[in-house]
Task: structure prediction
Amino acid sequence: MSELQEELIALLKRRGIADVGFAYIPNAGFGELQTAVSLVVRLSDAIVDEITDRPTHSYFHHYRTVNAYIDASLLEAGLLLQAAGYRYIPVPASQTINEEAWQNGGESSYRGRFSHKQAARLAGLGTVGKNALFLHRDYGCRVRLGTLFTDCPFETCKEPSASPCLGCDLCVKACPAGALTGAQWTPETPREALFDPKKCSEHMKEVGKNTGRGAVCGVCMRVCPSRC
Result:
């Protein structure tokens, strides 16, 4: 591992980032920037445990605050890389890109520029569950993710984890939107085979309308017992 990679990890750990991983992902849409740096931030167990069947004001605030913290951490990491002579592009912690839908009057794709879950999985930090959430190897799905692409040739991971959800369907039964199919995730499984993002989004808009715009449900996360 290079001195710069160790310096980057130390910087992020000082900021409170729980885990950091690196993956080589060519053809991700970032040109010559083919190394992904994946960040994991733990959510507050106390806040998550308050969730019952709908968003809470505390979780809504926590979700947005952690996203902003991840974005700031990605910027600081990128500035370190840029000072060392490398280029970087951060992927926002929470951003949906709907250019095609806006232009053609279609429905939202509910997707960002690149999947944080895919980057984290390829970086060896965990896997994906039946709830379509990332399951960190130590902290389960009570985490938020961030991703940065760079042309810095970091040492990367080559051993993604398998999903541990065999025999468990707690999230499927608990989902108040009925959005989860119960399908077992594999690397070849498309997101739509696991859950219906439109059902999920419409439910959150309805039950979260008195919480705040962009409120997130969190039920499938709260009931998940997984530790990879």
